Amino acid sequence: KQEVTQIPAALSVPEGENLVLNCSFTDSAIYNLQWFRQDPGKGLTSLLLIQSSQREQTSGRLNASLDKSSGRSTLYIAASQPGDSATYLCAVPGSSNTGKLIFGQGTTLQVKP
Amino acid sequence: DTGVSQNPRHKITKRGQNVTFRCDPISEHNRLYWYRQTLGQGPEFLTYFQNEAQLEKSRLLSDRFSAERPKGSFSTLEIQRTEQGDSAMYLCASSLMGVGNEQFFGPGTRLTVL
Fold first, then answer.
1. pLDDT in tens, B27-44
2. Contact: A34, B43; criterion CB under 8 Å
């Protein structure tokens, strides 16, 4: 059974810092991994999708890496801003047929001005 | 492309009442998912449609829950005889099979059962 863990559960940093969020999964037989952002009381916004054949994916100040063999992914945020404050969730497919996602519990990030 | 929409955004109901939520996916997406999220947790899968066929249901989906996607477009999720434990955010997502299956989420419906 696939399980996803995110560490740390919460993180507070001063504006301008570079930071790394971690995601680990127990079953390495995944075909992709998705990172999301969620603002309080809102839905999820897709940030990055990494296919199993890729090692990393970049979008602006965000860079996500994937190491299937070790069951780990990281989300790197460069030059953090107060507007980056949100909960970040990673998710992997629970099976190859349906694509239903198994989520971690998220990392809540606060960037202080 | 207007994204995934959900209605209502908020619903407050009394225990024992029935509620129905609607999800309109991105127009060309053939897959539609329902998830439930409680405070401080990641979303949990409830059910999934490919076109109009409901292909998988989670054990979380008790017999009080029913979902439909009658013409392979919008979907409804009904909860009968609501209980306080049903209070949660109900999220809908859609994707296009075969294109990485990247899922796009709606804003959610926040249900409060009094």
1. 989 999 999 999 999 999
2. no
